[in-house]
Amino acid sequence: MQAQASVVEQVNAGKQKVSPFQALKLAHSVRHVFVAKGKKLVHFDMKKSPPPDAELKQLMLGPSGNLRAPTTRSGERLFVGFNSEEFADRLWGARS
Q1: Cis amide bond preceding 70, omega within 30
Q2: pLDDT at residue 50 in the model
Q3: pLDDT at position 3
Q4: Per-residue H/E/C for the chain
Q5: Rounded to whole angstroms, how far apart are CA atoms 2 and 17?
Q6: What pLDDT, on a 0 to 100 scale, did the predictor assign at position 17?
Q7: Phi and psi for 55 in degrees, rounded to 5?
Q8: pLDDT of the residue at 8
Q9: What is the pLDDT of residue 96?
Q10: What pLDDT is recorded for position 83?
Q11: CA quadruple 88, 7, 13, 70: dihedral, nearest 10
Q12: Phi/psi zone of residue 25: left (φ > 0), alpha (ψ -120 to 50 degrees), beta?
C-alpha cells in the first residue's frame, strides 16, 4: 500500500497568480516536469536535458499568461495540467 503524501502548501490560482518568471523558477527547481495538454503528455528531465525557457513557458502557461491549473509538485516532480492515468503512475513513483 502506498503512503499518502501530505499537502505542504496549497495555492488558489484564482486568487494568487503565478507569473511566467515564477513558473520557470518552479520548473528549474525540480528534476522532472510533466505537462499534459489534452491526451498528450510531455516529459522533461530538467537535469539531463532541460528545454529552452520559451518552450517551457509555451507549455506551462495558460492564455492569461499565468501558470496553468492544476499544477502539483511531488518531491522532484512537477505536474502541469491534468492527465489522471499518466500522472497517477508517476506521482506515486511507479515510473519516472
Answers
A1: yes
A2: 96
A3: 53
A4: CCCCCCCCCCCCCCCCCCCHHHHHHHHHCCCEEEEEECCEEEEEECCCCCCCHHHHHHHHECCCCCECCCEEEECCEEEECCCHHHHHHHHCCCCC
A5: 32
A6: 86
A7: -70, -45
A8: 67
A9: 47
A10: 74
A11: 0
A12: alpha
Q: Which neighbouring-strand residues pair with 66?
A: none
C-alpha to C-alpha distances, 57 to 52, 86, 93, 95, nearest whole angstrom: 9, 21, 26, 25
The residue ranges of every structural domain in the chain are 20-87
Q: Provide the grid cell at 61.
A: 502557461
CA atoms within 13 A on the CB side of 58: 6
For the record, the C-alpha cell of 77 comes out as 516532480
Instruction: Tell which residue, 90, 82, 96, has the closest CA to residue 36.
Output: 82
Residues of the chain with pLDDT under 70: 1-14, 86-96
